[in-house]
Amino acid sequence: MPKGQPSVVPQDGLTTRQRRNRPLLMVHTGTGKGKSTAAFGMALRAWNQGWPVGVFQFVKSAKWKVGEERALKVLGASGEGGSVAWHKMGEGWSWVQRDLEDSEEAAREGWEQVKRDLAAETHRFYVLDEFAYPMHWGWVDVGEVVDVLRARPGTQHVVVTGRNAPQPLLEAADLVTEMGKVKHPMDAGQKGQRGIEW
Amino acid sequence: MPKGQPSVVPQDGLTTRQRRNRPLLMVHTGTGKGKSTAAFGMALRAWNQGWPVGVFQFVKSAKWKVGEERALKVLGASGEGGSVAWHKMGEGWSWVQRDLEDSEEAAREGWEQVKRDLAAETHRFYVLDEFAYPMHWGWVDVGEVVDVLRARPGTQHVVVTGRNAPQPLLEAADLVTEMGKVKHPMDAGQKGQRGIEW
C-alpha cells in the first residue's frame, strides 16, 4: 500500500498531474500464483471507474478463470460500471471466422486484434492474460510488442501476465511484480480445487 | 498455471478427493503489489461457486480498494453467485456499537468477529485483508490465530494478506505467495492514480 510519495521527481517536463495520469504498462510475472488473479482484481477498479475493459486470454484451457470471466461479465452487464469485452483464444477468437491451424497462429491473431483495439482506443484497461508465453516462445515478436505498446495513443492501461516475461517487456514496463512461489498445496500432494484454482 | 499433478502423494490417510477438497489457508505477502488484488480476484471464483464470501479489511484507509468493494457488492447483490459481506475497520466495524479507542483495539475486535464467523461457519471464503499487520505489530496473537485457523470447522477457505506475515502463519499455511516488487511507477516519480491504485 504505497503512501503516495514518489522517491524521486523526474526531470521529464511533465506536471505532477500529467505524470499521475500517464497510462501504465504493467507486467505480472514469476512462478507463483496470483499473476492473472491480480490482473483481474485490477480490472475491478477499472470497471468501477466506468472504463471499458478488454480481456484477451492467450491460453487454450477451458477450465481456468471461469469465475473471473463470469464475474467480470456480470459486472459489465450490470450498467453500474464500465463495459467488459472478454476474448478467448481457447474457444477461437470471436472475430476470426476460419479455423486457426495452431496455437502459434491463434496467438498472432490475438495480438493483431490487440493492435487494432489499441489504435482505435477501444478500451481503457487491457488484460493480456498469459501473453508472456507467446512472446517467450517467439510466436509474437517482443520488439514489435514493445514498440506498439510504447506508441499506443491516449490513456490506455495494459497489464500483461505470464511466466518468463521477456526482458525488453520488463524494461518497457512501468510496473513489474514478480509473484514468487513460497509454498503451494501441490507440494503437499493436494490437487487444484473448484472455487480456488478456477 | 499448475497442471494438476502433485509432486508427491502424502501418507495422510486421505483419499485424493478428500485431499482435494481440504479447506485452504493462503497467505499473500511481500513488498510488491497484488497481494490484496489477487485475494479479491480469488473471491470472484468463490462468488462464482455460489459460496458466501466474507471480507474483513484490517486497514484504516478510505481510498483504497473502493473498486473491489463496489464490484464485490454488486456481484453479491446480483443473485448470480454467492453472497458478499464486506466489513471495514476504517469505518468502524458494523457490529461494534461503541467508539473503539484505537487501531489496536479495533483490530482485536475484527479478529473476535472472524473467530465467531469461523465457529458459526458463516462464510466459505474469507479475505482477511492486511491482517498480517496486526499480527506483525503484536496486536493480535499469532499463536492464537494459527490455533483457531487450524481448528476451524467445515470447509472454510481463508486468505490473509499483508507485508511481514509472521513465520508461524507461513508455516501453518497451505499456500504462500510472495509478491516481490521489481519495478514500480513511484520509483520513476509517478504518484498513484485513480482506477489503478484504487
Automatic annotation (TrEMBL), chains A, B:
InterPro entries in the record: CblAdoTrfase_CobA, P-loop_NTPase
Source organism, top-level taxon: Bacteria
GO molecular function: ATP binding; corrinoid adenosyltransferase activity
Gene3D superfamilies per UniProt: P-loop containing nucleotide triphosphate hydrolases
This protein's record includes keyword Transmembrane: no
GO biological process annotation, one example: cobalamin biosynthetic process
One Pfam family per UniProt: CobA_CobO_BtuR
Enzyme Commission number: 2.5.1.17
Record's keyword terms, sorted: Transferase
Residue span of region Disordered: 1-21
Protein name: Cob(I)yrinic acid a,c-diamide adenosyltransferase
Naturally occurring in which organism (per UniProt): Streptomyces chumphonensis
Upper classification of the organism: Bacteria, Bacillati, Actinomycetota, Actinomycetes, Kitasatosporales
Gene: cobO
